[in-house]
Amino acid sequence: MKLITAIIRPFKLDEVREALTEVGVSGITVTEVKGFGRQKGHTELYRGAEYVVDFLPKLKVECAVAESSLEAALEALANAARTGKVGDGKIFVQSLERTVRIRTGELDDDAL
Ligand SMILES: Nc1ncnc2c1ncn2[C@@H]1O[C@H](COP(=O)(O)OP(=O)(O)OP(=O)(O)O)[C@@H](O)[C@H]1O
Ligand SMILES: [Mg+2]
């Protein structure tokens, strides 16, 4: 299993959720975060105005996927989140050791 963590533009959430659902991702967790990338936040626009602070509002989207779903999920996520402008975000992938579905006690791929 892999844990995908994507930092995306907040207004892209619906598109990203739909794209991930289409490739069979069974659940996602979303957190409001702030961050900056290479431009240090300065040259990015947010809702039409240049932000005066270094940190820009983003969403962190996390989803655990089976190894066999990883490439499809990454492609779907990136395509849905892309505008082509600076600040589109980033995707991180980590190995995931264990998953437990609390209600049933199922483990790993069966628990996703
Ligand atoms: N190296 C990193 N580590 C952790 N978070 C990062 C990193 N790079 C970017 N982020 C997160 O992703 C968000 C969006 O980054 P951003 O898309 O601006 O990256 P970038 O490397 O500057 O690419 P671009 O040139 O396309 O803007 C940041 O606000 C931050 O939350
Ligand atoms: Mg940037």
Write up what this structure looks like:
- Pfam families: P-II.
- InterPro entries: N-reg_PII (IPR002187), N-reg_PII-like_a/b (IPR011322), N-reg_PII/ATP_PRibTrfase_C (IPR015867), N-reg_PII_CS (IPR017918), N-reg_PII_urydylation_site (IPR002332).
- One of its GO terms (biological process) is regulation of nitrogen utilization.
- By secondary structure, the chain is of the alpha+beta class.
- It has a single domain (2-111), classed as Alpha-Beta Plaits.
- Helix content is 20%, strand content 30%.
- It has two helices and six strands, in the order βαββββαβ.
- It has helices at residues 13-22, 70-81; strands at residues 2-8, 29-35, 45-46, 49-50, 56-65, 90-95.
- β3 and β4 (49-50) form a beta hairpin.
- The protein binds adenosine-5'-triphosphate (ATP) and magnesium ion (MG).
- Residues 7, 35-39, 56, 58, 86-90 line the site of adenosine-5'-triphosphate.
Provide a brief overview of the structure.
By secondary structure, the chain is α+β, with helices and mostly antiparallel strands. Helix content is 20%, strand content 30%.
